[in-house]
């Protein structure tokens, strides 16, 4: 299915409100992963990026990209939404990096252009993984890494749509995960554990780690209500995949 037009429309519509609500938290410090803002210093997923060519797939307002540019990476921020790119351009600061309008499904880069491709609830949550993962693999150098954070199947299967929160009751079939309707035709994507392994290996990538970020007790989810509040301390809310191209 082609979710590009509807996802572009959605993110252009919500960009202002989204940044108003979340920018401060996402950008509070460099390298904060996911819904619970867990420092990469604790998770050790990304490694040293100094001098590396880095692509962020779905960079949003560029909170991650500008931090990596400041560390000395040659970063490119790609996003489907013009409004999100506008926000990234406005927040760029002294360490300039290029912003590219495009989609994770059809990356406008030559093969083997990057040492690291990554995202945090970006292009690999908002583009069909069976299209976006092979694209990411294509633009990676040999030895280059694809690192990305997405919601876990646990989190999605326990999401109570009517109540608007994650609970301890299974609400949706695990094997029924795949696409999530985000309104007005916009779609996000969610694979099972086996589905991710199949797509990653199918694109020729080697899985080095699957980190399950675990927030400390009392750490707030900046995006979704959970019941109980310490849900993600007890069950994995996110999957942080670390892979490389052999
Ligand atoms: C939740 S934000 C992630 C960005 C940042 N890490 C954050 O947490 O705000 C999702 C981003 O993915 C972008 N996006 C949606 N569909 C996309 C696609 N098919 N290709 C690339 N980016 C896409 C959206 O425009 C949005 O900026």
From TrEMBL:
Q: Which CDD domains match?
A: AdoMet_MTases
Which Pfam families does this chain map to? Methyltransf_11
Record GO terms (molecular function): methyltransferase activity
Q: Which UniProt keywords apply?
A: Methyltransferase, Transferase
Task: Give every Methyltransferase type domain span.
Answer: 55-148
Transferase in keyword set: yes
BP GO annotations: methylation
Question: SUPFAM superfamilies from the entry?
Answer: S-adenosyl-L-methionine-dependent methyltransferases
- Entry protein name: Class I SAM-dependent methyltransferase
Species of origin: Actinacidiphila acidipaludis
């Amino acid at each position: 299915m082609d979710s590009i037009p509807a996802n572009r429309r959605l993110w252009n519509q919500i960009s202002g409100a989204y940044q108003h609500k979340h920018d401060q938290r996402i950008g509070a410090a460099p390298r904060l992963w996911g819904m619970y803002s867990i420092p990469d210093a604790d998770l050790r997923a990304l490694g040293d990026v100094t001098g590396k060519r880095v692509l962020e797939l779905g960079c949003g307002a560029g909170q991650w990209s500008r931090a990596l540019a400041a560390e000395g990476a040659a970063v490119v921020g790609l996003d489907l939404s013009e409004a999100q790119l506008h926000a990234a351009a406005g927040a760029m600061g002294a360490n300039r990096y290029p912003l590219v309008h495009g989609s994770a499904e059809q990356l406008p880069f030559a093969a083997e252009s990057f040492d690291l491709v990554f995202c945090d609830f970006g292009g690999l949550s908002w583009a069909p993984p069976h299209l976006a993962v092979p694209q990411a693999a294509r633009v990676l150098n040999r030895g280059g890494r694809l690192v990305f954070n997405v919601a876990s199947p646990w989190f999605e299967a326990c999401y109570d749509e009517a109540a608007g929160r994650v609970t301890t009751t299974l609400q949706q079939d695990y094997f029924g995960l795949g696409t999530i309707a985000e309104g007005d035709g916009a779609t996000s994507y969610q694979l099972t554990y086996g589905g991710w392994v199949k797509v990653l290996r199918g694109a020729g990538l080697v899985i080095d780690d699957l980190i399950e970020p675990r927030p400390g007790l009392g750490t707030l989810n900046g995006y979704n209500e959970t019941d109980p509040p310490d849900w993600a301390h007890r069950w994995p809310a996110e999957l942080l995949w670390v892979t490389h191209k052999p």
